[in-house]
Design a protein that fits this description.
single chain, mainly beta, Jelly Rolls, Endonuclease I-creI, 2 domains, nine-stranded mixed beta sheet, six-stranded mixed beta sheet, 11% helix
């Protein structure tokens, strides 16, 4: 098993997904990847007072969006297989930012903010106390840190260039706050080599990402382990997290996204407990949770959670 270090350099960054991009690294199943990611504005500062350095995509792109490290190719990965991303370490930088109001968008219309002034909120991240603080007027507001990567995904199928904002069935800009340290994300492979991309550090975010942005931050340290499952076949991502088993759905229609997440959860419960689909649905209605992941990327996201150990079983007549 090898540890690959990808330094924060423009040569390792992309702003879209394409099979034509030169690999940033080629790794084996079981290898570890360590890197540093810039903030959403393609900048990075190691410590307060240090000037911000700006980065650029490795090759010319017509409309780069999120700065992502990649692509990282996994040897022997082929369509129909599954790549597991074990998120082992996430250390956010010292600062974060988010924005609200202004441009025409679904969420701004819902909050009656269309046409309002777009504001920027600057957050100070305190890693020792695991908090993020920002001034609104002369009052400091503090929230807990909950760092995660908003974007972890494999190359979608097809020869076209794919933009980073919408999540795909191979993952990508999922923006799920549950994918914290220790989580394992499982992604279906669509192209030879898989082609993994990651970035979009978030220091904290609520389900929905309602203003359009989380507390966007650089990540000083990212460490993941990549495992190829040749005999595992998926049609969409799922995850094992501290909260439980997560299934996902993505679509422009929130009902369709919810249907996809729920359908995958029912299938997993059916297989795990040997139940008929309608029995699994009854159990899910009593024990599982349906969350809106995000509503801001054109394609909306929903995730279903079955908490660990919430269901216990006992044979009828068993007094033990």
């Amino acid at each position: 098993m090898t540890t690959h270090v990808l330094p924060l350099q423009s040569k390792n960054l992309r702003g879209s997904f394409s099979s034509a991009y030169t690999p940033a690294a080629v790794i084996d199943s079981g290898d570890t990847l360590r890197t540093t990611t810039p903030d959403i504005e393609w900048r990075y500062s190691r410590k307060e007072g240090e000037p911000y350095q700006t980065y650029h995509p490795a090759t010319k792109e017509s409309d780069p969006k999120h700065p992502v490290i990649g692509p990282v190719y996994i040897k022997e990965a082929e369509p129909g297989m599954t790549v597991e991303i074990h998120i082992q370490r996430l250390v956010p930088g010292w600062y974060g930012r988010n924005w609200a109001g202004g441009a025409l968008s679904w969420q701004n219309e819902a909050m009656h903010l269309t046409g309002s002034e777009r504001i920027q909120v600057d957050w100070r991240l305190d890693k020792k106390n695991s908090t993020a603080s920002a001034l609104f007027g002369n009052i400091k507001y503090t929230i807990p840190l909950r760092p995660f990567l908003g974007l972890i995904g494999l190359q979608p199928s097809g020869d076209t260039v794919h933009p980073t904002p919408p999540p795909y069935f191979t993952g990508g800009n999922i923006d799920c706050r549950e994918l914290t340290e220790g989580s394992r994300l499982f992604l279906p492979v669509a192209v030879s080599g898989g082609a993994l991309y990651l970035g979009d550090g978030h220091a904290a975010q609520g389900d929905g990402e309602v203003s359009g942005t989380a507390v966007e931050c650089p990540m000083d340290e990212v460490e993941i382990k990549v495992i190829l499952h040749k005999n595992m076949k998926l049609t969409q991502p799922y995850a094992e997290t501290a909260s439980g088993v997560l299934t996902f759905g993505f679509d422009k229609d929130l009902n369709t996204a919810a249907s996809s997440a729920l359908g995958d959860l029912i299938e997993k419960i059916s297989i795990r407990y040997g139940l008929k689909p309608q029995e699994a649905a009854a159990l899910a209605s009593a024990a599982a949770h349906l969350h809106i992941t995000q509503v801001v990327n054109g394609v909306k996201g929903v995730h279903a959670i079955l908490p660990h150990h919430i269901i216990t079983t006992q044979l009828r007549g068993d007094n033990g």
